[in-house]
Amino acid sequence: MKKKIVAVICAAVMAMSLAACGSTEKNEGAAAQTTTNDGAQATANDGTDAGAGKSSNIDISGVKLMSDGVLSVGCEVGYPPFENFADDGTTPIGYDIDIITAVAEKLGLQVNIINTAWDGIFAGIDVNYDVVCSAVTITSERQETMSFSTPYVNNYQAVVVLANDEKEINSFNDLDGLSIALQKETTSDELMSDYKSTGTIEVQIVANEKVTSCFTQLQNGEVDAVVVDSTVADGYINSSDAFKIAYLDQSEPEQFGIAMGKDNTALQAAINQALKELEDEGFIKETSNYWFSGATEN
Predict the structure, then answer these.
(1) Which domains does the chain have, with CATH numbers?
(2) What's the confidence (pLDDT) of residue 52?
(3) Does residue 135 contact residue 257 with C-beta atoms inside 8 Å?
């Protein structure tokens, strides 16, 4: 991505239904409470449960957590389909919510989802929460100050336009002379800012706090295109016929991981083992298939 930038969830089951990208109910699962920035709490139900209820013997005796028995998670709720609020406006749902809930279950922990603005989210690691699970791209720069789990998503950068737009876009160079929307402090932002600052193209960049604003601007005709993670583009396109992917840059794949403190090696090892078990059990694949298509590979 979001190269990007609490819910106490019962670790016995999973939760979820598709919201901003359309509401779809699945199997009943975990109950989740989320603490948002204003302290409001809500309960989540309905989710993917391919890996739910499967016990694990992962040793977490050496893991240090902000609160005993609870995995606290920083997450920017508002980046569908990774994390968003359900139709009730308070229930957290999405791919990342499912993944981190299942990881916590494997570790025998409750999960506390702390809704946090993307800008500055990493500064909260080991201060406000244990990890960040919010479509975070693993980069060499970030690895200098934090540790990551093994990747759980492959992603690309995509250009999204209106479905009836006949412009031919075969590379980012074809955005020359256009206006684009993107989310601030993301991979998309860095990429397009680099194209513009080097004079490669002349492009008007409209940077937003939320990715949802980008698609609203596109639909309202305020910008010509949105540059965004392919996984996010998939979610919007799968739920609406208003958009299409005009260009997918597969030359530079990105990988998303769960970010945590640089020295929290015990937690890193435990999370990696949980992700491996979830992959072997088919949970990650099923969850990915539910939330994404095409451009996401696991």
Answers:
(1) 32-153+254-291 (3.40.190.10), 156-253 (3.40.190.10)
(2) 52
(3) no
Residue 176 neighbours by CB distance under 10 Å: 12
**Which phi and psi (to 5°) does residue 181 adopt?**
-110, 145
Written as six digits, the tokens of 237 are 């396109």
| Strands of the chain, DSSP E | 32-35, 43-44, 70-75, 84-85, 92-93, 110-115, 131-137, 146-148, 153-162, 179-183, 204-208, 225-229, 243-261
CB atoms inside a 10 Å sphere around CB 2: 27
Per-residue model confidence (pLDDT) at position 232: 92
pTM for the full model? 0.74
pLDDT tens column, 72-109: 999 999 888 999 999 999 989 999 999 999 999 999 99
Q: Which two tokens stand for residue 32?
A: 């989740």
- Residue 74, C-beta contacts closer than 8 angstroms, at least 6 positions apart: 114, 116, 121, 124, 125, 128, 129, 131, 132, 133, 134
Average pLDDT value for the chain: 84
Local structure of 134: helix, strand or coil: strand
Structure-block tokens of residue 126:
């080991």
Angle (CA) 85-88-94 rounded to 5° is 25
Q: Rounded to 5 degrees, what are φ and ψ at 168?
A: -95, 120
What distance lies between CA 269 and its chain's CA centroid?
A: 21
Residue 250 Cα distances to 4, 135, 152, 170, 173, angstroms: 19, 18, 18, 12, 15
Q: Which residue has the tokens 């940077």?
A: 207
What is the C-alpha to C-alpha distance for residues 153 and 275, in angstroms, rounded to an integer?
A: 11
